[in-house]
UniProtKB/TrEMBL annotation:
Ranges in a coiled coil: none
Record-given protein name: Oleosin
Single GO biological process annotation from the record: reproductive structure development
Any Gene Ontology CC annotation: monolayer-surrounded lipid storage body
Subcellular location: Lipid droplet; Membrane
Predominant subcellular localization, coarse grouping: other
Family indicated by similarity: Belongs to the oleosin family.
Length: 156
């Protein structure tokens, strides 16, 4: 009798192909360590957040009477501190703006052509042109108005 040959592999069944796909997509050890690190650090941070919130609430409960009793002192002091800090920051901001403006003007007048100098030159020429047109218009119609005033008041 002739020996029958069987295929070396069995045909893939649905369960076998599912397990094979699962093995192909299984995370490697580096990914598992990363996931474990992520879960552990997330848990620690969540625990610390809870402890911080609990300590804050307990601190407010414990110190609320002291805060209420001393509030006539804290409100003016807080207002004074706020106004002082706001004034200092405003002064610092205006000082920076003044230094930047003076620096830009210095570079502009020295001829170093800072950024935006072309816009200033264009605006200056437009203003000069408009002033010339207004001057011409005033000369043209100024005589007209002058003659109309003489007609209205002949003795003038």
């Amino acid at each position: 009798m002739a020996e029958r040959q069987y295929p070396s592999r069995r045909p893939a069944t649905t369960t076998g192909s599912f397990l094979q796909k699962l093995r192909e997509h299984a995370p490697n050890s580096t990914q598992l360590v990363g996931l474990a690190t992520l879960v552990i650090s997330g848990g620690i941070l969540l625990l610390l957040t809870g402890l911080t919130l609990t300590a804050t609430v307990l601190g407010l409960i414990f110190f609320a009477p002291l805060i209420l009793i001393s509030s006539p002192i804290w409100v003016p002091v807080g207002t004074l501190i706020f106004i002082t800090i706001a004034g200092s920051l405003s002064l610092l901001g205006f000082g920076v703006a003044v230094v930047a403006s003076v620096s830009w003007l210095y570079r502009y007048f020295r001829g170093f052509h800072p950024p935006g100098a072309d816009r200033v030159d264009y605006a200056r020429t437009r203003i000069a042109d408009t002033a010339g047109q207004v001057k011409d218009y005033a000369r043209e119609y100024g005589g007209y108005l002058h003659s109309r005033v003489k007609d209205a008041a002949p003795s003038a």
